[in-house]
Amino acid sequence: MNPDWNYGDGIDPVRAENFTAGFEIAHEGFTFNAGIFRSYFDDARDPSYNPPGDGSNSTIDFDTKGYSFGAGYTWGPGFVRANFTDSEISLDGQPATSYSSQYFGAPSAESSTSRPRTASTT
């Protein structure tokens, strides 16, 4: 552990604004959904150690934005769903690295998932 890592007087709470909008449509077992999101975080702790400035008390503003869409089908005992999400994160207006994106819990990338499931009866 870095012995110079000292929070001094402490860190102020982070403030955030979050916006989401979306829809879901269901018809005869089929579902379709889409949404957009955007979040602004003011004065989050900077994950890098920046002496001789604020050191471990250094803060940064970050924004995350993106969209998602998905589709699915449900039948009797099972279902299948697929989703796609595309997100971007910026730190003080600059693109974020993969490390800082993971640190803030908002990975910046395109991702897709699918979930098939069938219940068994015994």
Describe what you observe in this structure.
With 122 residues, the protein is mainly β. It contains one helix and six strands, in the order E-E-E-E-E-H-E. Strands 1, 2, 3, 4, 5 and 6 form a six-stranded antiparallel beta sheet that branches. The longest helix has 6 residues, at 98-103.
- Large-scale geometry: elongated
Number-wise, the strands total 6
**Chain-averaged pLDDT:** 80
Please, how many helices? 1
The rounded distance between the terminal residues' Cα atoms is 55 Å
Give me the strand/helix succession: EEEEEHE
Helix content: under 10%
Low-confidence stretches: none
Largest sheet: 6 strands, antiparallel
What radius of gyration results from the CA coordinates? 20 Å
For the structure shown, list the relevant keywords.
single chain, 122 residues, mainly beta, 6-stranded antiparallel β-sheet, elongated
Quick structural overview:
This protein is mainly beta and about 120 residues long. Helix content is about 5%, strand content about 60%. It has one helix spanning about 100-105, and strands at about 15-25, 30-45, 60-75, 80-90, 95, 110-120.
